[in-house]
Amino acid sequence: MNISHRVVQQNHLRRDVTSEANIIQRITKSAEEYLAPDGKQYRVITQKAVTSIADAENVSPLEVQVKALKQGIVPWRYLRNMGTIGPDGQVKLLQSAVAVVGAGGLGGTTIELLARQGVGHILIIDNDRFTEQNLNRQIMCTEMNLGEHKALVAARRVNQINSDIKVTALVKKLTQENAIALLKGAAIVVDGLDNLPSRIIVEKACRKLGIPFIYGTIAGFSGQMMTIYPEDKGLASIFGPNGSYPDQGIEMKIGTPSATPAMVAAWQVQEVIKIITGVGRPLRNHILLLDAIEGAIDKIELGGGE
């Protein structure tokens, strides 16, 4: 490296350090004291202050939030997350990318919850459009957006909930040929699909990418879910060795009421949070069976232990 290049690099470094100091100083000045109902004292920063600092320093609001959390100052919107995952856990979420394949019943609710929790980048993959029969259970579907692409509607919803995070909407059908390319960059993939062959494709892609796949399915008043790491036996432990799988399951006969997708999606999102933050133990090599009719939850151990 010659002298001129070294000088330029040093100048850039000085500017970065100065900018960092300015941002932290602004965050500290904007912080407010808050006494929680449990008597715990917090230093918090409002959404308005975060946006103002981001604009003034020409950085993203997400970057401001991360820096605030590292200073022990909590963005108001994430205050209710502190008791479970703490500031470090929230930083990990903000710096993570999660892909959701399918933006219907399961996927739509998952996307909404991930946005509220503060996952920094949500990737939505779906090539379908909303129809009237989706209105009973798909949280993103309204009478006003019938005929629109689910992925684009879901992306708009994310921006309305949490404009500080990044959302990428891909109006594409995930296939064996494009799965790796579409999912690359995600830390976790969440199942919002409605057929087993597509789930098998996603599971295989996640194995090749070395990332977890959170499987979920629904039918009637029941559902099931499981977290699958690349080294786990996964779906083969439920459905047997890869072979000829039916395209649709029993849900096509018995339907799906509105609460069932939310029931399973909530568990899927909790798995995302546990994996990213390290809080709790993911549900690996077990299948969780949820039965709302009987009011029962069963956890069944499967083959292929950790």
What's the topology here?
Elements: H1 3-30, E1 32-35, E2 41-45, H2 47-57, H3 61-70, E3 73-75, H4 82-94, E4 97-101, H5 105-117, E5 121-125, H6 150-161, E6 166-170, H7 179-183, E7 188-191, H8 196-209, E8 213-219, E9 222-228, H9 236-239, H10 251-254, H11 259-277, E10 286-291, E11 296-301
Parallel strand pairs: 2-3, 4-5, 4-7, 5-6, 7-8
Antiparallel strand pairs: 1-2, 8-9, 9-10, 10-11
Please, could you describe this protein's structure?
The chain is an alpha/beta fold. The protein folds into 2 domains: 9-82, no CATH class; 96-301, NAD(P)-binding Rossmann-like Domain (Rossmann fold), CATH 3.40.50.720. Helices cover 43% and strands 19% of the residues. It has helices at residues 3-30, 47-57, 61-70, 82-94, 105-117, 150-161, 179-183, 196-209, 236-239, 251-254, 259-277, and strands at 32-35, 41-45, 73-75, 97-101, 121-125, 166-170, 188-191, 213-219, 222-228, 286-291, 296-301. An 8-stranded mixed sheet has the order 6-5-4-7-8-9-10-11, with helices on both faces. The chain has a 3-stranded mixed sheet with strand order 1-2-3. The model is unreliable at 7-14 (pLDDT under 50).
Number of strands: 11
Give me the CATH fold name of the largest domain. Rossmann fold
Helix content estimate: 40-55%
Strands ordered across the widest β-sheet = 6-5-4-7-8-9-10-11
Main CATH class of the largest domain? Alpha Beta
CATH superfamily membership of the largest domain: NAD(P)-binding Rossmann-like Domain
Could you tell me the mean pLDDT? 91
Note the total helix count: 11
Unreliable sequence segments: 7-14
Which architecture of the largest domain does the CATH hierarchy give at level 2?
Answer: 3-Layer(aba) Sandwich
SSE-based structural type: alpha/beta
